[in-house]
Amino acid sequence: xxxxCQMDGKLPLDEKxxxxxxxxxxxxxxxxxxxxxxxxxxxxxxxxxxEKMMHxxxxxAQEMRKTSVVTIGGxxxxxxxxxxxxxxxxxxxxxxxxxxxxxxxxxxxxxxxxGAVIGFVSDLLGFxxxxxxxxxxxxxxxxxxxxxxxxxxxYKRKVTLLNVILSSLLxxxxxxxxxxxLWLSMMYGDAFIVLLGxxxxxxxxxxxxxxxxLFMILKVMEDLRHRFKIS
Length: 231
Known about the structure:
Elements: E1 18-24, E2 30-36, H1 42-63, H2 67-84, E3 88-91, E4 94-96, H3 100-129, H4 137-154, H5 161-188, H6 192-227
Antiparallel strand pairs: 1-2, 3-4
């Protein structure tokens, strides 16, 4: 069933539609009811939210057709690969790296699809150019998700400090503390909770620095996006 809604989630006044549905009684008695689904239902709001996400992904995928996007994306990939060479090791399972910043910039400029591509190629090339141990696809997934997350947060949207803090917090919780700790546990055989303790301390200390750097870089990218009409 197709629901035609305005941007505010309400049906146009000239297209007020009533949908008939069946409500099943606990004793298998079917009762007919009529309800107006004009954005008041959580289900409709979820559908609209998912449609907006899919629309964002489609717009981002279309960016790949532009020569300028491929060129800038290649530059961001190169920067990410170079930055991956300058990791600061803090231990066998701890290190500081800023190679994700160009991936975040790519997602912000060109959306989640292009951001995912930049993350995937950056991680793959980084391993090919300078392999460090054996290849583990979990870290490639991390790089892809970084591009996706920042793409959804900032593609065609204004960069604000609040959004940067929220997006950085999401990446920290889901990727840095969640997935990365899981991958390291699988690789080295250490207990997840043991690895998590040291990683929490490291991420808490680095969160203000990472967020400040991310905010500065994204603001610069935002200025370049407006000045040169990128995407």
